[in-house]
Amino acid sequence: MLELHHIAKSYANRRRVLTDLSYTLGEGEYVAIMGDSGVGKSTLLNLIAGLDSPDAGEIVIDGVSLAGLDDNAATLLRRARLGFIFQAFHVLPHLSVLQNIGLPLLLNGMDTQRVRTMLDAVGLQGRGDDFPRQLSGGELQRVAIARALVHRPRLVLADEPTGNLDPDTAHGILMLLRDEIKANGASAMIVTHSPAAAATADRVLILTNDGLHPA
Question: Are 177 and 36 in contact (CB under 8 A)?
Fold first, then answer.
């Protein structure tokens, strides 16, 4: 489902964060990435999502090399096959909660009936007509999670998906995330500092300067 071939990436200050990183994520696999701050975990997710480009190497998603795509083709691939849970949410302020969750369905020309199902699944019943400014950080995170899952993506990427949630809510969201991934046969990669979040994955990997290693 996901192939990383000899990925390298440096920050603007020329500090190398990823060096010759290779990894293959199979169909239906769900892995958690852990590691020290600044080692490049969020950078890796942004590269996989096509939001940034590696300095070297190749990323292949569902048999398609990102290097061979122009901006429009990359956007279409991301829209149809990926679900990304951002650490900063990126919920659109001018859209209601329901509209935010339903955006991937609308953009992909899909039936929007599943929106309310996902709204309820993340515990936001009755908040569908509210706007982001009326929500707490934890509620915004749940909107972002529902939006990432609503169109049943082939690959789910999540950056600290429970960072703003209390332990009880976090547990429920992690179970939802795992259940959705497994029910839809999706592959998933989450970045987390939380051992509880990592424990929901099939496998935990540690990102170091030398690449990805089993925990």
Answer: no
